[in-house]
Amino acid sequence: QLQASGGGLVQSTGSLRLSCVASGATFSSYTIGWFREAPGKEREFVATIRSSGGNTYYTDSVRGRFTISRDNRKNTVYLQMNSLKPEDTAVYYCAAGRPILSAVADTNGYYYWGQGTKVTVSS
Length: 123
What we know:
The chain is mainly beta. Helices cover 0% and strands 50% of the residues. The protein contains no helices and 11 strands. It has strands spanning 2-5, 8-11, 16-22, 31-37, 44-49, 56-58, 66-71, 76-81, 90-97, 110-113, 117-122. Strands 2, 4, 5, 6, 9, 10 and 11 form a 7-stranded mixed beta sheet that branches. Strands 1-3-8-7 form a 4-stranded antiparallel beta sheet, with no helix packed on it. A hairpin with a 6-residue loop joins β5 and β6 (56-58). 34% of the residues are buried. The model has no long low-confidence stretch (mean pLDDT 95).
C-alpha cells in the first residue's frame, strides 16, 4: 500500500515536497515512480527512482527543477519540487513496480498505486 502526501497550494516559483510512504517489507526492491494527472489530460510520467536509489529518471519538463530520492529505512520516496509553474498543477500519484529500463515512464510497468495528492500552482 502506498500513501502519497505533501500536496497543496503554492505560488509560482515556490516549492513543495511530496512524500510516498509504503507498507510492506519488500519496498526496497521496487522502483518507485511519480506520475501526475492534470484536469482533462492523461496521466503522465514525472520521475522514477530505482530500488537502490542510484538511478533516477525525469521527464524533460521537470528535469533540473524536481528531485526524486528515497529512504529505504523509512519506506519513503520523496519528490522535491522547486521553481514550480502553473503547468505543474495536477494530482500527483506515486507507484511501485519493476519496469524494465525502456518502460520506466510507462504506467503499465507499475503494479501498486497511491491515492494521489493534489498540487495547485497559482500564477
